[in-house]
Design a protein that fits this description.
Helices cover 30% and strands 20% of the residues. With 207 residues, it is α/β, with parallel strands linked by helices. It has a single domain, classed as Alpha-Beta Barrel (TIM Barrel), CATH 3.20.20.70. The strands form two sheets. The chain has an eight-stranded parallel beta barrel, surrounded by five helices. Helix 6 runs parallel beside helix 7. The radius of gyration is 16 Å and the shape is globular.
């Protein structure tokens, strides 16, 4: 199978960004959503991006942010890609001149195929667990058997960790996996050992 890409989200410290890069991840995510315990300021995010080595993608996560807020962030932080985790429209997502993808929370009645068609202008569709009132970061998995075959790449998220990600990759065959709480000591504080174990488990799935 093709190599599954790895993103570590909710980075809040330079040392964690460096630990992720050292483990060989493809992308790191920074959360621009104040209610999140992993939220970062534009100033801190700029510091985090500055320590990343070449070819590690810097992703900015937004949740129903005003357009002006996203544009102000992009002026201060050299983000490579945008992740939208709220009720943003396809037109809104595509309006910032950056590669982007849309998160879909797996509600019981969610029509994933329809969402993928609606957001087909993005680089991928991210599938995350659903809990009412939480746009993400639930720490819970969902039934991976619900993931349909799609024409666009799938990023799998939701409760992943070193113990379950190999099974998840084997079942879903996603283009990428996205983890935050599963590699943490505390919200926003990553554990380099857990990051390394997670990456090793993803690579083991290809074998």
């Amino acid at each position: 199978m093709a190599r599954t890409r790895i993103k570590i989200c909710g980075i809040t410290r330079p040392e964690d960004a460096l630990a992720a890069a050292a483990a060989g991840v493809d992308a790191v995510g920074m959360v621009f959503y104040e209610p999140s315990p992993r939220s970062v300021t534009m100033e801190l995010a700029a510091e985090l991006v500055a320590v990343l080595p070449p070819f590690v993608t810097a992703v900015g996560l937004f949740v129903d942010a005003p357009e002006a807020t996203v544009r102000a962030t992009l002026e201060r932080v050299p983000l490579d890609m945008l992740q939208f985790h709220g009720d943003e429209t396809p037109h809104y997502c595509a309006s910032f001149g950056r590669p982007w993808y849309k998160a879909v929370r797996m509600r019981p009645d969610e029509d994933v195929a329809a969402q993928a068609r609606a957001y087909s202008g993005g680089r991928a569709i991210l599938l995350d667990s659903y809990r009412a009132g939480m746009p993400g970061g639930t720490g819970e998995t969902f039934d991976w058997e619900r993931v349909p075959k799609l024409a666009m790449p799938i990023i799998l998220a939701g409760g992943l960790d070193a113990d379950n990600v190999e099974s998840a990759v084997v079942r879903v065959r996603p283009a990428a996996v996205d983890v935050s709480g599963g590699v943490e000591q505390a919200p926003g504080i990553k554990d380099p050992v857990l990051i390394s174990k997670f990456c090793a488990a993803v690579r083991a799935a290809a074998e």
